Amino acid sequence: MSLQELATFLGWCTVINFAFLIVASVSVIAMRGTMAKMHSSMFGLSESELSSIYFRYIAYYKIAIFMLNLVPYIAVKAML
C-alpha cells in the first residue's frame, strides 16, 4: 500500500467516524429522555449517571477519532 492510498484510507476513516460521531451526538441530544429511560431500566442507573456516561462516550469516541484517524492522516499527508 502506497502512502497516497494510506492517506486516502485514513481520510475516509476520519470522515466516516466524524459522521457517526455527529449522528450519535444528535441522537443523544434529541432523544435524551427516551434513551435515559430505556437505559436506566436496563442497567439500573439513574438519569444523572447516564448523562455522565453519555458525555464520556462521546468524549472518548472523539479522542479516539483524533488519535487513531486524524493524527495519522495528518502525519501521512506531511510525508507526501
Overall description:
- With 80 residues, the chain is mainly α.
- It has one domain (3-79).
- Helix content is 91%, strand content 0%.
Please tag this protein with its features.
single chain, elongated, 80 residues, 3 helices, 91% helix, mainly alpha
Task: Summarize the model shown.
With 80 residues, the protein is an all-alpha fold.
Largest sheet: none
What is the count of helical runs? Answer: 3
The global form is elongated
Strand-pairing-aware structural class: mainly alpha
Give the helices and strands, then pairings.
Elements: H1 3-30, H2 32-43, H3 47-79
Helix pairs in contact: 1-3
